[in-house]
């Protein structure tokens, strides 16, 4: 068997240490990579969020790109190039709720660019949550009329007004009628109904109403709206 000299043994050990350092130590790109890149979506306002990397570096900025699932090319988010924020609104780039999307983020400092960090595959129609509808209550004798306004998306139509979420997603609206903080009745309307009429109420009684948006297919519910109270005559 061939025996290594002391010098050869030392050189071999040094070479192994160098290889291990190159293969096993975290690279600069990984140290500076953003953490926990994920979408948060409310009323189809699709915002990408992330956290600072593990390595603390001054003057760190971030660059964001997105694409439709299946596309080869990435698109720069114009408003999110060289930003210091930890979020980027991608509502316009992800405006079709029936498409799947990816986004990615990398950081930049005086030490260079980090590696890109990819988001999960994002499907707005399944992943967005909804706000409760706005309600306006009027009283006529012992009849309550409830005007229901669905939440709106950040997207705008041809007339410049913000598009209602019901243009992109079927919803139902649940109205809770309460007296003395006790739930008395629950009413449900579809997204086409803009008004709910409640009759047969007791005279000289104060009622409070709250509203909830419900996604019929999944059964997901929004938070309840603030209470709106009104008294019968």
From TrEMBL:
<feature type="domain" description="Fibronectin type-III">
    <location>
        <begin position="16"/>
        <end position="116"/>
    </location>
</feature>
<keyword id="KW-0732">Signal</keyword>
<comment type="similarity">
    <text>Belongs to the type II cytokine receptor family.</text>
</comment>
<keyword id="KW-1015">Disulfide bond</keyword>
<dbReference type="GO" id="GO:0004896">
    <property type="term" value="F:cytokine receptor activity"/>
</dbReference>
<protein>
    <submittedName>
        <fullName>Interleukin-22 receptor subunit alpha-2-like</fullName>
    </submittedName>
</protein>
<feature type="signal peptide">
    <location>
        <begin position="1"/>
        <end position="22"/>
    </location>
</feature>
<dbReference type="Pfam" id="PF09294">
    <property type="entry name" value="Interfer-bind"/>
</dbReference>
<dbReference type="GO" id="GO:0005886">
    <property type="term" value="C:plasma membrane"/>
</dbReference>
<keyword id="KW-0675">Receptor</keyword>
<feature type="domain" description="Interferon/interleukin receptor">
    <location>
        <begin position="128"/>
        <end position="232"/>
    </location>
</feature>
<dbReference type="Pfam" id="PF01108">
    <property type="entry name" value="Tissue_fac"/>
</dbReference>
<dbReference type="InterPro" id="IPR015373">
    <property type="entry name" value="Interferon/interleukin_rcp_dom"/>
</dbReference>
<dbReference type="InterPro" id="IPR036116">
    <property type="entry name" value="FN3_sf"/>
</dbReference>
<dbReference type="InterPro" id="IPR050650">
    <property type="entry name" value="Type-II_Cytokine-TF_Rcpt"/>
</dbReference>
<dbReference type="InterPro" id="IPR013783">
    <property type="entry name" value="Ig-like_fold"/>
</dbReference>
<dbReference type="InterPro" id="IPR003961">
    <property type="entry name" value="FN3_dom"/>
</dbReference>
